[in-house]
Amino acid sequence: MNNRSNTIGIIGLSFGDEGKGKITDYLAQKADIVVRFQGGNNAGHTVVHNNTTFKFHIMPSGAVLEKEVVIANGCVVDPKVLLKEIEN
């Protein structure tokens, strides 16, 4: 029996658009859980799934893949923004 698990972390080394969202979206397709561990809704990421474009500021990229997603305690969450993302 193999109980080994793998974890991949995506961390940017500078501010701004480094492509973290695109890399996360790519890797999330084979992941069981997608976690956002820090940041707020001041920056966003765009995910395209089944020809539909989603713009997120709080939700992890894996949400459109119907993966288990976690918004960890290092994130600053604006409840109004989060609810709008969930509804859309």
Short description:
The protein is an alpha+beta fold. Helices cover 20% and strands 20% of the residues.
Overall shape: globular
- Judged by helices, strands and strand pairing, the structural class is alpha+beta
Total number of domains = 1
- Average pLDDT, to the nearest integer? 85
Number of beta-strand segments: 4
Name the CATH superfamily classification: Adenylosuccinate Synthetase, subunit A, domain 1
Number of helical segments with 4 or more residues: 2
Strand content: 15-25%
**Major sheet:** 2 strands, parallel
Task: Please describe the structure with a list of short key phrases separated by commas or semicolons.
88 residues, alpha+beta, Adenylosuccinate Synthetase, Chain A, domain 1, two-stranded parallel sheet, two-stranded antiparallel sheet, 2 helices, 20% strand
